[in-house]
Amino acid sequence: MQQLNELVRKVSTYLAPDQVEKIEQAYSFGARAHDGQHRVSGEPYIYHPLKVAQILADMHMDHQTLIAALLHDVIEDTPTVKQELSRQFGKSVAELVDGVSKLTQINFDSFEEAQAQNFRKMLMAMSNDIRVILVKLADRLHNMRTLGALRPDKRRRIARETLEIYVPIAQRLGLNNIRLELEELGFSALYPMRHRILTEQVRKARGHRKEIINKIRNALRRRLRQEKIPAQIIGREKHLYGIYQKMKNNGLSFNEVYDVYAFRIIVDSVNTCYRVVGTVHNLYKPVPGKFKDYIAIPKANGYQSLHTILFGPYGVPIEVQIRAQEMNDVAESGIAAHWLYKTGNTGERSSAHKRAREWLHSIMELQQTAGNSQEFLENVKVDLFPDAVYAFTPKGKIIELPRGATAVDFAYAIHSNVGNSCSGVRINRRLAPLSTQLFSGQTVEIIKSPGAQPNPAWLNFVVTAKARSSIRHYLKNLQQSEAITLGKRLLNRQLEILNVQYDQLTAGQIQTVLKEYKLENENALFLEIGLGNRIAPLIARKLTATGKKIDDAAKINNGHSKPFVIKGTEGMVVNFPKCCYPIPGDPIIGFASAERGIVIHNQSCKNIAEFKNQPDKWFNVEWDQHIGREFPAHIRMNATNQRGVLATVASAISDQEANIINVDIKDKDDRYTTLEFIIEVRDRQHLAHVMRRIRNIKHVSQISR
After folding, report:
1. Residue 191 falls within a domain, yes or no?
2. Statement to judge: residues 596 and 523 lie in one domain
3. CA proximity to 409, closest of 382, 374, 375
4. Residue 220 phi, psi dihedral angles, 5° rounding
5. Active site includes 595?
6. How many structural domains compose the chain?
7. Is pTM, for the whole model, over 0.70?
8. Tell me, what CATH number does 71's domain have?
């Protein structure tokens, strides 16, 4: 009752009496639902929801959020159902509680899968009502405060999850106070020894710092007074986890991190912020390149401030943050400032809420393109508040990206369609590769082409979750489309062998096969064949209900039928492996491989020996007479160690209109070097011309494919 009275006292200062009464009713409902349940620490279970509600009351959250906090575990841990909550406390409260509740009715294959699916559910609920995450963060904060009651392995698991997921979310939403406490609690639980040593070091060093801190603060105060600028100056203590992260990531000693003196100057307006920058730069010399203007370009969570680093007395570095009071409120409370100051809402406060909404919109896009819950969780982890780069569109719009982002990431940040159709980029009006990493201040113009499409190689260098998931989604759909087309061609070819046309089959024949393989429709059947998961001869026999044995069908397939024609334009479902680099003109054989479609090998390739015991998966294939693309070919040569030999060989290849993809140089001995090239050629004849031209170079003694 003492905890309840404390909650009532807090909420009575800003909520209406009827709303306070509903909160008390929710407490009674929750207490009855959790009656007889206890936490691991031995306390009655209702003590936890009360503490969660108190954390949210300190943030001045509305009465629905507080009711949801008091009831946030009743669906998950008691027989209470969502409909009952909706009937008693309204639909909004029921949705909030359901959004925070874990999926307990489903059996998952692993803890990781369960964690990912629960996280996905929570973020989807959060996209409908942002208060879901505030309840979840308050719940996590109280759980972290009481972590000591759990066994060590569970403490470490929860602490790691907190640091990897909930701390970045709190930071992304600007909830600085919650973030800092979660960091400290997570650090002490995950690395207790390191936490204890750093705490002791800070305690010892603190005494030596007081004199310098007071001297710097007094100097700042005097100078601001001279300029008649009213300001509040706060000396900021560095947090343990921040110290640990800087030491770990930058390879610094404790003294190198802790010897930075940090101050925050809070003033009345934006104009005054810029006046203060000039004042402190006159007092102490600024460190070049260390001034950051987050007022003109706010962070993704709405954070606004001016940051500068100065050379202080005795050569000590001074970090100074300068911000208006409204900015400070948003910096500490983030989206919670939207509720904390509902009256007289300012642009800064609503800005944090708006930016949180924009982030949630991007999360919804990730959800639609992610393959499964674990992929979605990994994508969100990547996307959670990395260091930012600010680039500009040609029209001056600011695009915020994580550090290391490329032109392709920029294209997808504008829109998925822009990313899917981008073919080139101009950075500061100069053409550049799509893999070029971007830096703040650059103007980026994406060049689009109607026939362009994502390249699988982009996945090797993109860093944003949106770009990665959009590329995978596009390629997956493209592969399915190509596989359906290929599967239909393969099946039609096998039916022709049996003197049947697909159009002649009855609906009953098709449905019988679909039912046997548990497939929804004909496209699903073609997809299975195109991906190599089902064998076309076997499907053809089942459709026509012939009595031929598998071996007979395999013989028909491989020995006595017109070969399947390879055009080279089938896309991702026809693959040309690097073991033998087949090119048009080579005698080839096809092999059905699960998920990869048809793999085309040169008939002399040593790797096809392992497939001889699976004749039903072979395909009799041949090249089309008209192929309009080039294929990679591998050539090896011995050359004398003479200056300019590599350039001479490269020039000879270029003269024959062949493109060099890769060069590998291997020293054989003092006289000879082995050169290996991967080049692009049209066919065997083109390759023969290239090799003949190279053979005529006097420094090349031997060349082979």
Report:
1. no
2. yes
3. 382
4. -65, -45
5. no
6. 5
7. no
8. 1.10.3210.10
Q: 598 with 591: CB under 8 angstroms?
A: yes
C-alpha torsion angle, residues 270, 273, 274, 276 (rounded to 10): 160
Residue 314, judged by CB atoms within 10 A of its CB (0-12, 13-18, 19+), counts as exposed
456: DSSP letter: G
Q: Which domain holds residue 681?
A: 631-704
Burial class (CB in 10 A: 0-12, 13-18, 19+), 310: buried
Is 76 among the residues known to form the active site? yes
Residue 699 reports pLDDT greater than 90: no
Which residue among the candidates 24, 58, 62, 76 is catalytic per the annotation? 76
Candidates 131, 124, 50, 120; CA nearest to 93 is 131
> What is the reported pLDDT for 558?
46
User: Which residue would you say has higher pLDDT here, 605 or 478?
Assistant: 605
Same domain, 332 and 419: no
CA 290 to chain centre: 29
Report the C-alpha gap between 56 and 539 in whole angstroms. 62
**Same-domain pairing of 452 and 480:** no
For residues 477 and 614, membership in a common domain is answered with yes
- Residue 93's identity, in one-letter code, is V
State whether residue 664 is helix, strand or coil.
Answer: strand
Classified as helix, coil or strand, 189 is helix
Q: Quick check: 346 pLDDT over 70?
A: no
Is 467 within 8 Å of 412 (Cβ atoms)?
A: yes
Which helix (H) or strand (E) segment is 635 a member of?
A: strand 631-640
CB neighbourhood size of 346 (10 A): 15
Report DSSP letters for 563-606, one per residue: PEEE-S-SGGGEE--TTT---TTS-EEEEEETTTEEEEEETT-G
**Do 617 and 645 lie in a common domain?**
no
pLDDT tens sequence across 23-32: 999 889 888 8
Domain C-terminal end among 623, 656, 675: 623
Closest C-alpha among 399, 377, 374 to residue 388:
399
Query: In whole angstroms, what is the distance from residue 473 CA to residue 452 CA?
Result: 16
Residues 660 and 601 in one domain: no
User: How would residue 45 be classed by pLDDT, with cut points 50, 70 and 90?
Assistant: confident
CB atoms within 10 A of CB 676: 13
339 within domain boundaries: yes
Catalytic residue among 24, 58, 62, 77: 77
CATH of the domain at 657: 3.30.70.260
In a domain, 588, yes or no: yes
Asked if residue 661 lies in contact with residue 607, where contact means CB atoms within 8 angstroms, the answer is no
**What pLDDT digit, counting tens, does each position of 401-425 carry?**
877 889 999 999 898 889 989 999 9
Query: Is the Cβ–Cβ distance between 280 and 220 less than 8 Å?
Result: yes
Residue 154 located in a structural domain: no
Q: Which of 463, 484, 499 is the last residue of a domain?
A: 463
Q: Write the DSSP string, 256-314.
A: HHHT-EEEEEEESSHHHHHHHHHHHHHHSEEPTT--EETTTS--TT----EEEEEE-GG
Locus of tokens 């420094």: 699
660, β-bridge pairs: 679
Is-contact 693 686, C-beta < 8 A?
no
CA pair distance 470, 476, nearest whole angstrom:
10
Question: Does 431 share its domain with 507?
Answer: no
**Do 593 and 637 belong to one domain?**
no
